[in-house]
Every structure is written in C-alpha cells, then in structure tokens.
TrEMBL record:
Catalytic activity: L-aspartate + H(+) = beta-alanine + CO2
A GO CC term attached to the entry: cytosol
Range of residues in the leader sequence: none
BP-aspect Gene Ontology terms: alanine biosynthetic process; pantothenate biosynthetic process
Cofactor note: Binds 1 pyruvoyl group covalently per subunit.
Name of the protein in question: Aspartate 1-decarboxylase
Amino acid sequence: MKRLMLKSKLHMARVTDKNLEYEGSIEIDENLMKAVDLKEFEQVLVVDIENANRFETYVIKGKAGSGIIALNGAAARLVEKGDRIIIMAFGLFDDDEYKSPKIAILNERNEIVQMK
C-alpha cells in the first residue's frame, strides 16, 4: 500500500517578497530547495503562521544564496512580507521505502539553523 507522507519541509521561512503581477508560484532559494529535496515545479502546501492561511502552489527556483521566499500571483494576497511560513511537500511511499522527511529549520534571514 502507498501512503502519502511528508517528504520535505522548510520550517519558519520568512516571506521576503510578493508579486501579484505574476503567473503564480512560490520562489525559493535554490540552496534551500536542494537541502530539503524540492524540485522546480513541484507542488507544495504553504501554511502562514501569522494568519493561518493554507494554500497549494508550485516551486520555482530562486537565486542560490539569496534567501528569497517570494509568493507570486494570487497566493501573494494570502501573505505579507515578513510573515513566517511553513512549506511542505509530500510523496507517495511504500511502508518499507519511507525513511523520514528532510526538514530544515530556518532563522529570520532564511538561513538553515538545523536539519532534522
């Protein structure tokens, strides 16, 4: 049996920018993407800690080392710059193939302070 399990998580990311005039998505620093195994165009669930909004979008690659976490398009209406968010991706796994998710805890500059 396949189970839908947490695969990747960026915890306490800070929104650095938002742009309504864009076709959509969340732009994430490429280094952060690599740290938790997120791929460009992968679907993610985003939770805003400040206002409890939850929404799905897809990832686009941001400049490595920039710390960018930018919401684009309609999703930009659901967050404010500086909001703390959680970004999660899930995968389908057999019981014997699932080990654990890659989780990065971030500081206020979107730098990784801990990997779980």
